[in-house]
Design brief:
Mean pLDDT: 76
Number of helices: 2
Distance between the termini: 184 Å
InterPro entries: TM2D1-3-like (IPR050932)
Shape: elongated
Keywords: Glycoprotein, Signal
Strand order of the largest sheet: 1-4-5
Largest sheet: 3 strands, mixed
Order of helices and strands: HEEEEEEEEEEEH
Organism: Callithrix jacchus
Number of strands: 11
Protein name: TM2 domain containing 3
Radius of gyration: 49 Å
Strand content: 15-25%
Length: about 210
């Protein structure tokens, strides 16, 4: 009897162990499934990325290029088109040579029509305000009168002509005599006065004939 009960007890214990293991596996699988479902439902904080567009390369043409003739002689370029290494210690009124280079976006050639970037210019040693009046242009004033005594002056803003080279600032103030009278330019007023005077003389001669 004891020998028959012992195998049954062992079988019963084995069944209980298998039942426990099966329940443990079911519970473990359920928790993993719940965790997986939760992760799918709530994926957590999302990351956002901002795409910064690449800066476009500047294609703007410098304003001085409009004054620079393309493929012309470098030595004939306007002063706004070149950069020169000047020396203020030169002797006034004497010939002087300076090293120059063209500015970006400017193209020029030498005497043999070969592309050139660096060259020399020959000029007279003097500041821009020391140039003759034919080498610069000045603003006019219509608010002062030439008939005043002593003759009035006004402060004009003068600018050196493009192809003239000189030392210092290319724009400078200068005191000039007034050139206007009664709203007319002095030369125009003088011509009108002469016409009136000639007409008066002709009228006087006609009266005595």
């Amino acid at each position: 009897m004891a020998a028959g009960v012992r195998p049954l007890w062992g079988l019963s214990a084995l069944c209980r162990v298998l039942l426990f293991l099966s329940q443990f596996c079911i519970l473990s699988g359920g928790e993993q499934s719940q965790a997986l479902a939760q992760s799918i439902k709530d994926p957590g904080p999302t990351r956002t990325f901002t795409v910064v567009p690449r800066a476009a390369e500047s294609t703007e043409i410098p304003p001085y290029v409009m004054k620079c003739p393309s493929n012309g002689l470098c030595s004939r370029l306007p002063a706004d088109c070149i950069d020169c290494t000047t020396n203020f210690s030169c002797t006034y009124g004497k010939p002087v040579t300076f090293d120059c280079a063209v500015k970006p976006s400017v193209t020029c050639v030498d005497q043999d029509f070969k592309s050139q970037k660096n060259f020399i210019i020959n000029m007279t040693c003097r500041f821009c305000w020391q140039l003759p009046e034919t080498d610069y242009e000045c603003s006019n004033s219509t608010s002062c009168m030439t008939v005043a005594c002593p003759r009035q002056r006004y402060t004009a803003n003068c600018t050196v002509r493009d192809h003239v080279h000189c030392l210092g600032n290319r724009t400078f103030p200068k005191m000039l005599y007034c050139n206007w009278t009664g709203g007319y330019k002095w030369s125009t007023a003088l011509a009108l006065s002469l016409q009136v005077w000639v007409g008066h003389v002709q009228l006087t001669v006609g009266l005595y004939q």
